Amino acid sequence: MSLDAIIERHRGREGPLLPILHDVQATVGCIDTAAEAAIAAALNLSRAEVHGVVSFYHDFTATADPRPCLELCRAEACQARGVEAMVAAAEAAAGDRVRLKPVYCLGLCSVGPNARIGDTLHARLDEASLVALIGQA
Amino acid sequence: MTIVRISDDVLALACGADAVAAAFAEVGCTVERVSSWGMHWLEPLVEIDGIGWGPVKPGDVAAILCGTSDKAIGSIADHPFIARQKRLTFARAGRTRPLNLDDYAATGGWAGLNRARALTPVTIIAEVTQSGLRGRGGAGFPAGVKWRTVAAAPGARKYIVCNADEGDSGTFADRILMEGDPFALIEGMAIAAHAVGAQAGTIYVRSEYPHAIAKLNAAIDLAAAIIAPFRLEVRVGAGAYVCGEETALLNSLEGKRGEVRTKPPLPAIEGLFGCPTAVNNVLTIAAVSHIMRPGGGDLYASLGTGRSRGTMPIQLAGNIRHGGLFEAPFGLTLYELIHDIGGGTATGRPVKAVQVGGPLGAYIHPRDFALPFDYEAYAAADALIGHGGITVFDDSVDMGAMARFAMQFCAIESCGKCTPCRIGSTRGVELIDRIRSTPRQADITLLEDLCETLKDASLCALGGFTPYPVLSALKHWPGDFGR
Q: Any idea which architecture B3-83 has in CATH?
């Protein structure tokens, strides 16, 4: 979907900015300055206002990262189940090829450590299965 | 034809439920995908004629079907973990297909809404107030009082907003409900809208919950005609923990940075787009759907202890042997929850600490495990129930590191609106690092002073409650701070 089509799809809604940004991020992989300017113009906002929102939320990025991304939960419940001891091996396995992103809670707190790739979640990870997962990402 | 029931909750999926379901389908069984019973150590859990097996792998299928599997747990409903519970909000957990309207109606669905529609808003609010229902998001504010304020506030346009931004580590009850029983939330939203006079409602779900978002959207489509003219939509968060704070959530819905607003004005008076808005947690709203059934309010009020009425969906998480969802009347002690019900730690090592109420909750020492689960009892012990999550740690945990993490998490997630939280959290990380390398009383005094400032001068619970985990760790485990 084009940027114009995304804006058109949501502009009639109350509070259209976040739905627009979600769609742009999902389609393009980032929200760059050109997209910010176009969205600002369409919603009668300043680019500073749009940029303020883009830069506030962890889900939105200014530049695209084409690498596969693995989100690894680093919150308390996964810490209690040993995630921190696996981080060094995960980083080594990821290298520059896979983006390893910390996330704070995936809601599977009784079966951690947990990770997410796209919309697929993985539970009960140990170091070997986490490294294998990164290898397949 | 053998009917095999397997959960399609994301936790079961993450533990391999789809492969198990496919293996049963391959040998000719009919597989029904149901909600999760909440016994997470047994997922993927397989149910045939009320008998359960778990945790099941695809290779177990043949043995289960010929009755020789050693993973049998007997009757699921009679399992001690289930039989000890009093499930009201999670009455359908494990028993119904999440998106099946017939299953929902056959288990008392829409009875609350149908009854509420025949009542005046004043009567509904009185019944919810009488039931003793308090906000399950963490603050424990009486739901009926909030609704009365919204209903009485002047304004032609009003909103009902469901806070489904369940960001606390150690909590997952909102997620299980949205995935497993989405119609219960929708029914509660429709009742709430009728009570406060809202025409439209929004469920704000965190982006970390893609399966809950998909289930809710599908359920809203299926139920649109039933709840009409009330309109309901799902909005997706964008990875900001602080948006679980109600005013930050409203800003996010309006398309702004998720910064906390000063109160007053209360959202009940000036909320979404400046209109009177009731913001309630998933569990609060879902509870309304059964409270409004005939006799539901009286049943709710008859359970619990003191001013903590009804049931609390407690989440057993972290390093615990039998983790999952345990809904029970208020009043259980931590010892019962962690040892009798949870079976101690998953690693088999001694429990060193538990954190109740998410990242902003206090760490509780095993010597205090007689504490009853009750809003007032926790407040008196400088702790909080929060959203009912209990995260267990064994004796390998370094509590100094956990205190540091609490400050670090606050620094990462601070919205930046108020100075104590924005700057104090980073200064807190530095101070804890300094104490842990060279313990000095002056630095500990400074840390305590910093925590006082965060507590007293922050706008919201992120900065205001981060001192709970920090100070409780410092108080109970001074050795982990090099002292």
A: 3-Layer(aba) Sandwich (3.40)
Q: What is the least distance, in Å, from the CA of A20 to any CA of chain B?
A: 10
Nearest CA among B10, B15, B11, B32 for reference residue B214: B10
Take residue B302 and report the two structure tokens written for it: 């008859």
Q: Do B172 and A109 touch (CB under 8 A)?
A: yes
Beta-bridge partner residues of B326? B314
- Strands B3-7 and A120-122 come out as unpaired
Asked if residue A39 lies in contact with residue A80, where contact means CB atoms within 8 angstroms, the answer is: no
Strands B351-356 and B389-394: antiparallel
Query: CATH says B101-301 is which class?
Result: alpha beta
Nearest beta carbon to residue A107 from set B41, B166, B258:
B166
Domain range list for chain B? 3-83, 101-301, 303-394, 399-481
Considering CB atoms only, which of B40, B254, B409 is closest to A111? B40
Where residue A10 falls among pLDDT bands split at 50, 70, 90? very high
> Given this model, what pLDDT does residue B482 score?
82
pLDDT bracket for residue A104 (50, 70, 90):
very high
* Beta bridge pairs of residue B280: B162
Question: How far, in Å, CA of B482 to CA of B147, rounded?
Answer: 49
Residue B325: phi and psi, rounded to 5, are -105, 125
User: How far is Cα B62 from Cα B262, in angstroms, rounded to an integer?
Assistant: 61
Give pLDDT tens digits for B155-204: 999 999 999 999 999 999 999 999 999 999 999 999 999 999 999 999 99
Contact A109 B317 (CB under 8 A): yes
CATH topology of domain B303-394: Ubiquitin-like (UB roll) (3.10.20)
Instruction: Read off the amino acid at residue B431.
Output: L
Q: Do A56 and B240 touch (CB under 8 A)?
A: yes
For B306-318, write each residue's pLDDT tens digit: 999 999 999 999 9
The average confidence (pLDDT) of chain B is 97
For range B38-65, the mean pLDDT: 98
Q: What is the mean pLDDT of residues B340-365?
A: 97
Beta strands (DSSP E) in B272-422 are 277-281, 304-305, 308-309, 311-318, 324-329, 351-356, 363-364, 389-394
Q: Which fold has domain B399-481?
A: de novo design (two linked rop proteins) (1.20.1440)
| Structural domains of chain A in order of their starting residue, each with its CATH number | 3-56 (no CATH), 69-136 (3.40.30.10)
- Minimum CA–CA partner of B394 in chain A: A80
Burial B88-103 (b: 16+ CB within 10 A, else e): bbbbbbbbbbbbeeeb
Pick B14's closest partner by Cβ from A52, A80, A123: A123
Tell me the chain B residues in contact with residue A81 when contact means C-beta distances shorter than 8 Å.
Answer: 318-319, 346
Q: How many CA atoms lie within 13 A of A114 on its CB side?
A: 31
Taking each helix axis as running N to C, give the angle between helix A47-56 and helix A17-28, from 0 to 180 degrees, rounded to the nearest 10.
70
CA A79, A82, A83, A87 dihedral sign is positive
Is A12 near chain B, with CB under 8 Å? no
Q: Of A43-52, A83-92, B135-144, B425-434, which gets the smallest average pLDDT?
A: B135-144
Distance CA A118, CA A28 (A): 15
Interchain pair A108, B10: CB under 8 A: yes
